[in-house]
């Protein structure tokens, strides 16, 4: 298996914690952590298997100063990229209590952008075992990536990451 690039943002907080845990679960020889903040197509080019991770729906989505977060800036650059031949997976942090009607929506936003850029989406996760009202990340009975709720379900993160890594090892071939 080729080395897996894990692009995440922002630095600090739960997103970084989960990205680090994910890299440890894959193993340091199998993955590399990279900041999405300044990532360009040249940074992505060397990798065939890519994971993107970020916070999902919250103040960064609703602020008036749009375009200032790591993901806002990267998504603009992503719209100009050609990711044909790349396999991409997504993890997103969410809060199923406070944002039950928008649970991990940004996974869906990222998935749409990645598919438009030509990437093949892998790492979909069944919605079974998650409590939420609505999500843009849902297609049928799956999420388009791995939802992680560090606010109310941190005790499930290690198992969810382990199961997802096992799945991705089969899909990233």
Number of domains: 1
Strand residue percentage: 15-25%
Total number of strands = 9
Question: What are the low-pLDDT stretches, counting only 5+ consecutive residues below 50?
Answer: none
Question: Radius of gyration from the CA trace?
Answer: 15 Å
Helix-strand category? alpha/beta
Number of helices: 6
Q: Per CATH, what is the topology?
A: Rossmann fold
Please name the CATH architecture. Answer: 3-Layer(aba) Sandwich
Give the end-to-end Cα distance, rounded to a whole number of Å.
6 Å
* Quaternary class: single chain
Order of helices and strands: EHEHEHHEHEEEEEH
Sketch the major β-sheet. Answer: 6 strands, parallel
Description:
There is one protein chain. This protein has helices spanning 13-26, 41-44, 59-62, 70-78, 105-116, 157-171; strands at 4-8, 31-35, 49-55, 87-93, 120-121, 125-126, 138-139, 142-143, 146-148. It is of the alpha/beta class. It has a single domain (4-171), classed as 3-Layer(aba) Sandwich (Rossmann fold). Strands 1, 2, 3, 4, 5 and 9 form a 6-stranded parallel sheet that branches. Strands 6-8-7 form a 3-stranded antiparallel sheet, covered by helices on one side. Strand 7 and strand 8 form a beta hairpin. Helix 1 crosses helix 6 (157-171).
């Amino acid at each position: 298996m080729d080395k897996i690039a894990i692009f995440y943002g922002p630095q600090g907080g739960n997103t970084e914690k989960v990205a680090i845990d994910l890299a440890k679960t894959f193993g340091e020889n199998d993955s590399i952590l990279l900041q999405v903040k300044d990532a360009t197509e040249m940074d992505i080019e060397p990798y065939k298997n890519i994971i993107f991770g970020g916070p999902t729906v919250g103040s960064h989505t609703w602020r008036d100063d749009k375009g200032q977060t790591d993901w806002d800036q990267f998504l603009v650059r992503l719209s100009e990229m050609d990711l044909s031949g790349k396999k991409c997976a997504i993890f997103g942090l969410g809060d199923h209590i406070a944002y039950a009607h928008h649970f991990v929506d940004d996974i869906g936003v990222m998935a749409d952008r990645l598919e438009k850029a030509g990437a093949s989406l892998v790492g979909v996760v069944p919605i079974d075992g998650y409590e939420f009202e609505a999500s843009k990340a849902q297609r049928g009975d799956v999420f388009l990536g791995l939802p992680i709720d560090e606010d109310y379900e941190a005790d499930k993160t290690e198992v969810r990451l382990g199961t997802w890594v096992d799945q991705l090892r089969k899909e990233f071939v």
